[in-house]
Design goal:
189 residues, alpha+beta, 6 helices, 33% helix, NADH Oxidase, globular, two-stranded antiparallel ribbon
Length: 189
């Protein structure tokens, strides 16, 4: 049940202090990602963790307006992939799936370390690649803000309310079935 507890604790909070996170801890997060399942052990993803204040400021220019709060995070981590790095099973490409598993392992380790972790898709990928020195062929799939829970004074009203709102997830019967597909599995309109 410990894993379910970690999954229940993991939530995309935004209220972080500017307190730094030591590199030893951040390395453990990357180690957790490294241990995620990988077809043929290709590990078709890479991680760039930004902690330098000037580099954080530069990477912050890639964030969309809705992710203003991440400018306060002491750590931004980029998960990078390229579909050519993965095994292809028939016509299925697994790089994005495997990156997702690695990113989840990273997040669960962050929870275990007592940190907040918030994955984001709201950023300008071209700008992020420019700041991080990443080639055009690669994809910055997600940015993850990491920090210590704390200050919420910089959050807008909507985000402040989300920090304490109940966590709502779909009912299990809407996403899970035994033996065959059923009508409950179709998303509601």
């Amino acid at each position: 049940m410990a894993l379910l507890s970690a999954l229940e604790k993991r939530r995309a909070y935004r209220g972080m202090t500017k307190e730094t996170v030591d590199k030893e801890t951040l390395t453990r997060l990357a180690e957790a990602a490294r241990l995620a399942p990988s077809s043929g052990n290709k590990q078709p993803w890479r991680i760039v963790t930004v902690v330098d204040p000037e580099q954080l400021k530069s990477l912050g220019t890639a964030l969309t307006d809705g992710n203003y709060w991440a400018l306060h995070a002491p750590v931004l981590t980029a998960f990078v992939t390229n579909s050519s790095w993965s095994n292809v099973m028939g016509k299925r490409e697994y790089a994005s799936f495997e990156l997702g598993m690695a990113a989840m392992a990273y997040q669960l380790q962050a929870v275990e370390e007592g940190l907040l972790v918030h994955p984001m898709s709201g950023f300008n990928e071209a700008k992020a690649k420019e700041v991080l020195g990443i080639n055009d062929d690669e994809s910055v799939f997600v940015l993850v803000a990491v920090g210590v829970k704390g200050d919420t004074s910089y959050l807008g009203e909507k985000h402040l309310a989300q920090e304490t709102s109940p966590r709502n997830r779909k009912d299990l019967k809407e996403i899970f079935a035994f033996d065959s597909w059923n009508e409950n599995l179709y998303p509601s309109a």
